[in-house]
Amino acid sequence: MTGKTITEKILSEKSGADATAGDYVEATVDAMVTHDVTGPLTIDVFEDVTGDDAALAAPENVVFTLDHHAPADGVQAANNHNIVREFAAEYGANQYEISDGICHQVMIEEGFVEPGDLVIGADSHSTTYGGLGALGTGVGSTDLGTAFATGELWFRVPETIRFEVEGDLPDGVYAKDLILRFIGDVGFDGATYKTAEYGGSAIRDLPIHQRLVLSNMAIEMGGKAGIVEPDERTATYLEEQAGLEVGVDPDLAADDDASYEAVYTYEGADLAPQVSKPSNPENAVDVGETTGTDIDQVFVGTCTNGRYEDIRVVADVLTGERVAPNTRLIVVPASRAVYQRCLETGVLEALVDAGATFQSAGCGPCFGTHQGALGDGDVALATANRNFPGREGSMESRVYLGSPATAAATALYGEITDPREIDTTRYDDHAVSDVGVVR
């Protein structure tokens, strides 16, 4: 019998079937999440499905966050917030307030996700949970509203593409650079409805906050999921971060004879910092091909790179320095807890002293509506996950994507700068503690 991928193992466990790629299964869902944009529609579907006998199948596993228009940037946003608040109170769901953080960060910090879980969300970046060895995937509000009522959802078991990186990553190269390279090699739709499974010694050496980056951006190559095999580092992180005592089942690892649609292999030492040029994440090139590009705004944040370790990299580069003239630096932490740690460790003060605008937790300008939306002709470099036309504001703006280290170097000089040209080693991101939140 052919071995199984991690995805096949999780969906087999959750469906009670011997699931292999291409099969259709009905699976029990462990956790569900939505936010202030997709939440109201999800609620409408749930109420249509349940009628007068409305009840959540497992209210303790349902999570709402107010993160996209947070704080509310208009009357409609405020009304949507109230719809979510009232529903969660009536049905006993978990609800997190404005500035508590981005849904994916909150789900992880608050312990809603464990290795081997099946997690769905009405947000495409629900793939993030694969960084903990879970199967996380985005679904539509219709599917999520139905799952609210039943606790189950059907899936087609995805094929899997494996990405293996061996050896040590060079200074200045981070998980963001890896995933941009992967997307560039595979293409924007090269992994459509497939799982991206990440492995190799370089991946095993990554701290959890960087593994989450790989899984988060699997969707940018069309992926249904992105998974890193969980290990003892995962278990330690969950215990320290969320107070969860979880064992890591060695059987959850992919089998040696698992079947993959394709395998991409890389040598860590050969990799360079990457930048994705406008206006698609697949336009990834070595940073040297973009150096010298004038930048109006640098944005550090999002569910991709808004964690404490990401912001700390930027602060260490800019401590005692100033953001370049005519360049704006906007920093938005991924959660209130991240904000608090930045405050307690002096990171917030260092960035404000350097000229940054440090804002309350949430999605920020990644959503393109407030907290730093771009105007016509603006050129930005962001640690975000997407750079489509209009993604961060005007359709006439242009957005480059890069790592926090690249963002820091760019903010310092006002033009895209190779992070290897400045001292980013004062804070060794590869060796930092996995826990980015003070409890």
Automatic annotation (TrEMBL):
Residue sites binding [4Fe-4S] cluster per the record: 303, 363, 366
Keywords (A to Z) from UniProt: 4Fe-4S, Amino-acid biosynthesis, Branched-chain amino acid biosynthesis, Iron, Iron-sulfur, Leucine biosynthesis, Lyase, Metal-binding
Domain Aconitase/3-isopropylmalate dehydratase large subunit alpha/beta/alpha: 9-289, 291-414
Record bears the keyword Iron: yes
GO MF annotation, one: 4 iron, 4 sulfur cluster binding
Tagged with keyword Amino-acid biosynthesis: yes
GO BP of this protein: L-leucine biosynthetic process
SUPFAM superfamilies noted in UniProt: Aconitase iron-sulfur domain
EC number: 4.2.1.33
Cofactor(s), names only, from the UniProt record: [4Fe-4S] cluster
CDD domains the record matches: IPMI
Domain of life: Archaea
Cofactor note: Binds 1 [4Fe-4S] cluster per subunit.
UniProt-listed Pfam families: Aconitase
Pathway annotation from the record: Amino-acid biosynthesis; L-leucine biosynthesis; L-leucine from 3-methyl-2-oxobutanoate: step 2/4
Catalytic reaction annotation: (2R,3S)-3-isopropylmalate = (2S)-2-isopropylmalate
PANTHER family reported for this sequence: HOMOACONITASE, MITOCHONDRIAL-RELATED, ISOPROPYLMALATE_CITRAMALATE ISOMERASE LARGE SUBUNIT
Reported function: Catalyzes the isomerization between 2-isopropylmalate and 3-isopropylmalate, via the formation of 2-isopropylmaleate.
Similarity remark: Belongs to the aconitase/IPM isomerase family. LeuC type 2 subfamily.
Assembly: Heterodimer of LeuC and LeuD.
Record's protein name: 3-isopropylmalate dehydratase large subunit
Lineage: Archaea, Methanobacteriati, Methanobacteriota, Stenosarchaea group, Halobacteria
